[in-house]
Amino acid sequence: MSGDDLLADGPKTPERRKPRHLIDWDNPPPPRRREPMSLTQVQRWVISTLTMVTIAHFAGGIVLAALTVSPTHQGGRLPLLLLAGVTGVCGVAAALAIHRRPLLSPWLLLGWLPTLVGAYFVYWR
Fold it and tell me: Nearest to residue 62, comparing CAs of 43, 85, 32, 42?
């Protein structure tokens, strides 16, 4: 055995393991496969989006009406803001019903967003 043979067959160092959070490009993970959405699911998403956008615009218009109430009739602002909130809650409930989800859900609180934004501009700004 010569010295060159010893260097070639020298002590093997154990292969260093790569951290698991990094991608090993020599052995990539299999691609995730999602099932395509059915036509019914797409239709539900489209109609619920249209419903929410339409009702949100209506609620926003009611908030704008509350903002434009003359200073001599300020008593009409609060009922308009509450009506905007009820309208928003009905819009969220409609979207939940379209997706066949329970109507009593924390998502209903999202319907009060027009009222909160309108109250900020009417009373605190």
Answer: 85
What 8-state DSSP symbol labels residue 69? S
Q: How far apart are CA 77 and CA 83, in angstroms?
A: 10
The pTM for the full model equals 0.70
Greatest C-alpha distance within the chain: 107
Phi, psi of 92 (to 5 degrees): -65, -40
Tens of pLDDT along 25-43? 788 878 888 888 899 999 9
Cβ count within 10 A of residue 90: 16
- Residue 116: Cβ within 10 Å count: 14
Cβ contact 83:112 at 8 Å: no
At position 46, the amino acid (one-letter code) is V
- pLDDT tens per residue, range 101-121: 999 999 999 999 999 999 999
Of 94, 112, 111, the residue nearest 103 (C-alpha): 94
